[in-house]
Structures are given as C-alpha cells and as structure tokens.
Amino acid sequence: MFNPWHHVAAGDRIPQYVNGIIEIPKGSRAKYELDKDSGMLKLDRVLYSSVYYPANYGFIPRTYCADKDPLDILIFSQIDLVPLCVVEAKVIGVMQMTDNGEADDKIIAVAANDVSINHVNDISELPPHFVHELRHFFEEYKTLENKKVIVEEFQQRDTAEKIVLDSLEDYKKYILPLTEGTPFA
C-alpha cells in the first residue's frame, strides 16, 4: 500500500529544498488531512470561520514533530496546487506557533518551479502583507471552534532549515522503526 508520508522522498537538496505534499490548496475552506493509516486524504472539517487558506498547505514527507504529525509546510505560488501534488519547495522561513498549548511549526516556502516567486530566498523578502495574512489566518481560523492558536514568531531560513533536519531525524528515530515489516517499509 502506497502512503505519501512514508513513500515519497523528502527531497534531494535538503534542507534548502524539500518536497511538500499538498493537502489543502490556497483559497480553500476545506481542511483536508492525510489519513496516516491509509495514505488517503480525508475531510477533517470545513473551517468554522469565514476565512480561506492564504497559501498552499501540506506536509514534508518522512518528517515527524512533537505534535505527532509530519512537519507542516506552507508553499507560496501564483497558483492553487491540487491536493496530493508533490511540489519541490525552497525553504525560506518558519512560523512558530502554539495550537491548543502544543508547539506546531509551519515551514514557509516558495514553489521552486514558479518563476513568479522562486527568486525569494528568505522570509524577510516577502511582502509584509503576506506575513500579516499568515499570522491573521492562523490566529483566527479556529476562533469559532473555541480553540486558541498563538502565532509566536516568524524565523528566517536558517532556523527553518534546522527544524526540517530535526524533523527528518525524529522520523528516523520514532516512526521508521514502527514501519519495519509493514506495508510502509
């Protein structure tokens, strides 16, 4: 059985470039999420608030984080990317946040094959309004669910690259041993 979390490579130019697997296209109110067992996308919920994802959203394969999920990634592109699309993405920063008291980093990247944005090398080069939109979206999108998200800070590329490397190591340490002898191996 194919599972994108386990069977898609994280990339071949890590940590500067990674593969992102899209779960949610930019502009969507649907919160799709990878079903970790089947590898299929499932509808987790339709956002309660009248807000839309400001960037393509997904995860980096073969990563694992403290929230017991793969590492999240937001990929800027001039187009909305389809779910389960594999996108080579240039890491430019990270948004560090707390979701219901739990750390939940979001890598910020640009689509490597989109010439309208791939010249950006660090989050500091993004238009300030993009960063404000990200902060606003994540601080508000769970408000009507009575859940609290706190965007703590945005960090530059070097911090993001370290988080990518750490999450790859955590996958090898915590997840890979569990997949040996399974269809994921």
TrEMBL record:
Q: List positions binding Mg(2+) 1.
A: 67, 72, 104
SUPFAM superfamilies from the xrefs? Inorganic pyrophosphatase (SSF50324)
Give the keywords, sorted.
Answer: Cytoplasm, Hydrolase, Magnesium, Metal-binding
Under the heading InterPro entries, the entry gives:
Pyrophosphatase, Pyrophosphatase_sf
The family note in this entry says: Belongs to the PPase family.
**Positions bound to substrate:** 31, 45, 57, 141
Among its keywords, does the record have Hydrolase?
Answer: yes
Query: Main subcellular localization, coarse class?
Result: cytoplasm
Record flagged with keyword Cell cycle: no
> Subunit arrangement?
Homohexamer.
Role, per record: Catalyzes the hydrolysis of inorganic pyrophosphate (PPi) forming two phosphate ions.
* Reactions listed under catalytic activity: diphosphate + H2O = 2 phosphate + H(+)
Q: Which gene encodes it?
A: ppa
Please tell me where Mg(2+) 2 binds in this chain: 72
Q: What is its EC number?
A: 3.6.1.1
What HAMAP family is this protein classified in?
Answer: Inorganic_PPase
Q: Which Pfam families match?
A: Pyrophosphatase
Q: What is this protein called?
A: Inorganic pyrophosphatase
Q: Where in the cell is it found?
A: Cytoplasm
The cofactor named in the record is:
Mg(2+)
